[in-house]
Write a structure and sequence with these properties.
With about 300 residues, the protein is of the alpha+beta class. It is built from ten helices and ten strands. The longest helix is centred in the middle third of the chain and has 24 residues. The protein is globular.
Length: about 300
């Protein structure tokens, strides 16, 4: 499931940093620690059965292999994202791949002074990573170590047991198979019973698994995938709504139209008239075909880094 891992600028193995403007990112997992700083507008984040609203200035930290999903809450949300592989700092901190934090919100754990220090360190790391001055790799290594030191000396965390790691890996493997099942079959009728048969377990068990992992029903998740697929088709220039309806897996045009009204407040036709055609970036990176987000090249990222520079 490599589509769930971002490699924005593969310049430092184990360390990735990028800006992202997101409408929707499908549920995903990856083995890195992920730290995001909200820069513009609000982000709705789903982690298991919990949902969070992150405002500009908020910092969120996601443990490795923690399933999470992003939605805009109003306008498209722009954030800075740092991903650190546990192997990047394994010699200095070998337990990094087994640590976990229960609450992804960081800000309440910090005093204003420490919070500013955390943000300034992240911003300095972003500048070093994007400017690529001589020996910047050492600077990034030092700043990322300092960043995690600031976090783990303030944020409650614990070490997962071997059993917890095994259970997490088993659940994530099932989640990836479920996502693949939907990705490959959303254009046709999808039944959870078919996936349950392939998994060798009951529909009831899988219904609880989906609800616990994605905080929504299986059918709601399928509808979300189909809706975002339809948005991509419309943005690509598909103007005949009946074709969009069929190609995105909606068998009933009334349900297709009702979904658009629920998600956007607009009919598909009204949404189509407002949709802008996406600009093709020099690098295209997706968590899945059905995510709706914009990534930026290095020059654009440096511009954003200057624009959102803390004062």
């Amino acid at each position: 499931m490599n589509e769930f891992e971002i490699i924005r600028y593969p310049q430092i193995s184990g360390l990735t940093l990028f800006f992202d403007t997101v409408d929707y990112r499908t549920p995903h997992v990856h083995p890195e620690w992920e730290l995001i700083l909200i820069l513009e507008h609000t982000l709705s984040v789903t982690c298991g059965q919990k949902r969070y609203l992150a405002q500009p200035g908020e910092l969120m930290l996601f443990s490795p292999d923690l399933p999470h999903e992003f939605h805009r809450a109003g306008e498209s949300c722009t954030f800075l994202c740092l991903q650190i592989s546990p192997q990047y700092l394994s010699q200095a901190f070998p337990l990094l791949d087994r640590l976990t934090v229960d609450d992804p919100f960081l800000r309440p754990r910090f005093s204003p002074e420490d919070s500013r220090s955390l943000t300034d360190t992240l911003w300095a790391l972003a500048g070093a990573y994007l400017r690529r001055e001589p020996c910047y790799e050492l600077q990034c290594l030092g700043l990322s170590s300092l960043l995690l030191h600031l976090i783990f000396t303030h944020v409650p965390h614990r070490v997962l047991t071997a059993g917890e790691v095994s259970s997490r890996d088993k659940n994530n493997a099932r989640l990836k198979r479920l996502i693949r099942f939907v990705d490959e079959g959303y254009m046709h009728k999808l039944r959870l019973s078919d996936f349950a048969a392939a998994e060798g377990c009951s529909v009831s068990h899988l219904s609880h698994f989906v609800k616990d992992t994605l905080n929504q029903s299986f059918q709601d998740y399928v509808t979300t995938v189909r809706f975002n697929c339809a948005c991509k088709l419309i943005a690509s220039g598909r103007r005949r709504m009946l074709d969009v309806c069929e190609e995105s897996g909606f068998s009933d045009y009334r349900y297709f139209s009702r979904t658009f009204r629920k998600q956007t407040g607009l009919t598909p036709e009204e949404y189509s008239r407002q949709a802008s055609h996406p600009r093709r970036e020099d690098r295209e990176i997706r968590h899945s075909l059905y995510s709706l987000e914009r990534f930026y090249d290095r020059e654009q990222s440096l511009s954003l880094w200057g624009r959102f520079q803390p004062v």
